[in-house]
Predict the 3D structure of the following.
Amino acid sequence: MNSVDLDKLFNPRNIALVGASGNPAKWGHIILLNILKGNYPGTVYPVNLKEEAILGYKCYPSVGDIPDTVDLAMLTTPSHLVPSLIEECGKKNIPFVIVITSDFSETGPEGAELEREVVEIGRRYGVRIVGPNTMGIFSSKSNLHALMPPVMPLNGSVSMFSQSGNVGVQMLSWGTEEGVGFEKFVSSGNEGDLTCVDYLSYLSRDEATRVILAYLEGIDPGADLFPVAREVSRIKPILVFKGGRTEAGGKAAASHSGAMAGETRIYRAAFIQSGMIEVKTSQALMDCAKAFSNYPIPMGKRVGIITRGGGWGVITADFCEENGLIVPPLPMDIIDKFDKLLPKYWSRSNPVDLVATIAYDPYLECLEILTEWEGIDAIIALGAGIRVPEYKYSKEVKGPKELMNTIDFLTKMMKERAKKPDKMLESMGALVKRSGKPIIGVAIGAEATHKMNLERFQVVSYPTPERGVRVLRQMYKYRRFLNSPSTT
Amino acid sequence: MNSVDLDKLFNPRNIALVGASGNPAKWGHIILLNILKGNYPGTVYPVNLKEEAILGYKCYPSVGDIPDTVDLAMLTTPSHLVPSLIEECGKKNIPFVIVITSDFSETGPEGAELEREVVEIGRRYGVRIVGPNTMGIFSSKSNLHALMPPVMPLNGSVSMFSQSGNVGVQMLSWGTEEGVGFEKFVSSGNEGDLTCVDYLSYLSRDEATRVILAYLEGIDPGADLFPVAREVSRIKPILVFKGGRTEAGGKAAASHSGAMAGETRIYRAAFIQSGMIEVKTSQALMDCAKAFSNYPIPMGKRVGIITRGGGWGVITADFCEENGLIVPPLPMDIIDKFDKLLPKYWSRSNPVDLVATIAYDPYLECLEILTEWEGIDAIIALGAGIRVPEYKYSKEVKGPKELMNTIDFLTKMMKERAKKPDKMLESMGALVKRSGKPIIGVAIGAEATHKMNLERFQVVSYPTPERGVRVLRQMYKYRRFLNSPSTT
């Protein structure tokens, strides 16, 4: 396996920010601000010929003038200055340089020539380059927000490399809304020197990284991506989202990242062989990141469904079967157990339909029975994780005193009920840990509650059953890869 | 076309609530409360042998004792009482009865026999029945919340009939989160008497209804659903979500609504022939409801894409092509127009990549150029509708005074920028009206802003580009149906 040690890139003791600017509209200024805002504990040395200090930080006229060894330099200067700056960094023995600057191979042959020159100089001096044309990197453990946009991701165990800075950075901030936390991120830019293969093999050895996300547009046929991925996939899951799958998308990719989109069918086969889990939508990438980083991988494809109302059970069972999952019938011993708990008209089948039972305790008992049943590998719990809104009847209705009394009574009861989901979710999270089976919660809509379910109770839940089913299908695919004989 | 006049069902002058109860845990009590909470302007007459008054409303011992003509009765009594109560309603000349009570055909042959009896009595007296085993109805215009759950939908132009009460009612409350408003709703229950065909043809004539949603599990082969739908589809779109498409889902449907799921391929063909737009997920049902009820139907399948960053443009173009839409190349005259507005390194192709231009004015000018271009029928505007969060730098960072000054400056600037999207969205909404072309906004994540975009600016936007693409595909399908020769 390829083995560039990127420790100093993601955990630099200090950073030289070359092209830092006193103008708040310039990227050299904004990046410095982002680094400071992230409370980076190391030292930042702005490098600028003309300024004395930026944001109160002393400026140095050149990298060579910095009175310290430097682990990482970031360049935001115009592109024609980059070659000589890389040389300066080399002479200063700086091991890593992030070239934010664009106008290289993505713009045409001239830029490509300049990019080759820059990389060649780096090679001569042992300087490894991120980019050019990158939005930067993020590292949770070292509080490093060396990024163009002012993104403050949640901390977590998902790491990502992205051939589109925009897509990558938006995944980071979207994660904050969904409760999905990140450990490391790199916008790989044009990959003139360091490539996705280097990032992949580094992240596979990174203990804080549990799941690797990749947004790819072009893959260098000469690179070892697939053999390396095949080894990494044995250790941790790689979720890949491939842009440029079609002619329209491929053309757009060519004009943007400088990469030519390849043959989709060939990529698809290679993803499958190397155990990479390909998702087809941005939502699926986020949803899978959430489940893979928080839940155990199910042992198989048999799904138990529990629901408070028939229709959603039907919808979920349909979608399971359409996605290659199995909804097995309940055996008699399990039916007997449910019979003791549920009103006589319950469904007596999987999906287990509690028929409008809205109490939490029988729901939880049923969930426990399902979890212990050896005939299934995962559970979709419909209506779990709903927070009963605290209805404020009183202010909305006019009526006689007796009506008002009832409304007060109901408001109070609703408030009590609104507290119940916490115990329910706590037990769900514990059940997942004890059984090793993922229990996917579903509460229609209710976007804000899903983040809370995850952060407070380690329960993975989604606003629709279909999103949960898609995630389980991907987890099952990964299980199949893990179960396949290793060729190495 | 079938023509039961349901005006008095959806706009009753008064309601008899038979089986109303003083016990707040009983449905007869909760429904009364929901009706009162909805500020229903008519009169409600609770009917209960034992109670004097419920919630301050005088009780009558029987329907016959009510000193007024009655338009609508609702029954929540045990099932064995239903036949004689229908007879009473008949004698009182009540035209419509909603039978909330369950334990009819959905539970087996005995219940089916009781259901036949009830319907037969109704026929004899000219009483039309909703249900049995229904969750009730909703009518926005008459402030009628005759529903079991305490749902308060937004007012709008979407109407729905649902063979699952649960699915229907959750669509109503989900709509509130998404900004999708409803006009009429009926949980059709077992459809012992009135069927989906009756609701469909009534809603097709209802002027306040712009889009019809249907959740179907079983369809009576003897009913005229498809011929009727074929006529209705010429007038307004019918979005259909079919539960019981697979063996697993079909079994669940049989145990729940009492309906046997039919052959999926046959249904599918019938949906297509009758112009019904079939969606495959609950999310798609909601997303389509939103666009179909607020936007014009595009004339064709050619999509213009505008983006602030390359990657999302690639993703959107891929998904368009994978879903049968076309992303045509830009002609020279349009390129010339963009050249005057954009930095030299813009993509010069569709997707139009503004390359990290974050200002609003050039974005809007480009959007106008795209809208006027005759080569496209619809637009996906990536990054439109984003609200720049008001970063509060000051409280998070420690540093020298100069840094604090910059942070204050930026905080102020961000606040100014946060106001800009309003003008942008206002112009977008106006552009849609002027051009007749749908402009789908996309802002990754940002759930809460999409509701506001719709309610304040009549702009339809989604949290991922893929959801927007799926909606445009369905709109194009409907356009193809409208363009097909009518056989009648």
Q: What stands out?
A: Chain A has a mean pLDDT of 90. Chain A touches chain B through 93 residues (CB under 8 Å). Residues 401-435 of chain A form the longest helix (35 residues). The domain at 153-294 of chain A is CATH 3.40.50.261 (Rossmann fold).
